[in-house]
Each structure stands twice: as C-alpha cells, then as structure tokens.
Amino acid sequence: MRIISGEFKGRRITAPKKLPVRPTTDMAKEALFNILNNLYFLDAISVLDLFSGTGNISYEFASRGTENIVAIDQDFGCIKFINDTAEGFEMPIKTIKSDVFKFLENTKQKATIIFADPPYDFPLEAFVKIPTLVFENNLLETGGILIVEHSKYTPLSHLPQFSYSKSYGGNVFSFFEGEQITEEEEEEEEKY
C-alpha cells in the first residue's frame, strides 16, 4: 500500500502477510479523501479509526496534517505494525488494542470523523451495531461524521442517521451524520 497524498505522498508501506487485513484500495481511498478535503480542514480535526488493520487510513490522515488520531484494533500484530510505522514516520497516531464494540460501549472519546472498516464478512447485525453505539454514546463531535466501509452486498441505507453512500468498485462508504445542534444549544447543554 502507498500513501496517496500529503507530507508522505508516494511512500510505500509493506505490511506483514500474516496480518488479518483487507486494506482499502488506493482508488477508494483517494475518492474518500477528496470528499473529506471538501468537508473539513484535516489539520483541525480528530479521528477514530476503528478496525484499523494496517493503519492505512490513519496514515493518510497523518500525512495530511491530522494530529489527533486514535487507531483501534483487537489484533496485537496490527497494533504493533501501526505503532512501528507511526514511530518510523513520526506520525501522531495513538493505538488502542481492543475489541471495537467494547471500546465503543465504554469510551467517552469524541471525534470529528469516525471511520470504521470492519471485515466485509461480518453479519449485518455487527455492521448495524457500529452506528448504533456511536450515536447512542454521542461519540461524534458537532458537525462530525461516521463513515462505514462495507461491500455492496451489505445494505445500510435504511439505518437512522444514514446520510448518503459512495461506491468505488466493490467498496462502499456509507456516511452517517448526527443531528446538528447549534452553538446556542451546545452552550445550553454545557450549563447542566
């Protein structure tokens, strides 16, 4: 895999073959970041990278100047690989070795962008559980989005908070948005 843009553009990263991963294709990654570049200043956001695998998506954010990145995966080999790669490139990626669902149930950490790339062969209930936990636990910052990567055979458009999806080959990115609250509502909430 290679980093497609930013400070580390063109750098190749070779993950060990034994890691249980399916990295996002370069074409899909490039299309995704074209969308995100139009929505956010990537150097001013925070990111949770769920089922981070090789860290492919985290490296793209770091290369584009994002400094608050947390990568979560339950595989020790994946976490070690991300730590080693991030250290080698001096990227500000923090890792957490955890089952993603347990992490989502227990964390209070919010992010502007939550990206989830679970195994494509997960049952539909597992895919549904991701946005459910994110929104039940209020893990998106105001104006934030949840992006779930999945195959074209996994329907997610019926879920609450679903906004739109984009397809690239066999990859689909489904975008979920919370209710946007105004600054006044946020200030009112903080009083309590």
From TrEMBL:
Question: How is this protein named in the record?
Answer: Methyltransferase
Q: Which domain of life is it from?
A: Bacteria
Q: Which SUPFAM superfamilies match?
A: S-adenosyl-L-methionine-dependent methyltransferases
Which InterPro entries does this entry report, sorted A to Z? Answer: DNA_methylase_N6_adenine_CS, RNA_MeTrfase_RsmD, SAM-dependent_MTases_sf
Q: Which UniProt keywords apply?
A: Methyltransferase, Transferase
Q: Name one GO biological process term.
A: rRNA methylation
Q: Name one Pfam family in it.
A: Cons_hypoth95
GO MF terms held by the record: methyltransferase activity; nucleic acid binding
Supply the CDD domains for this chain: AdoMet_MTases
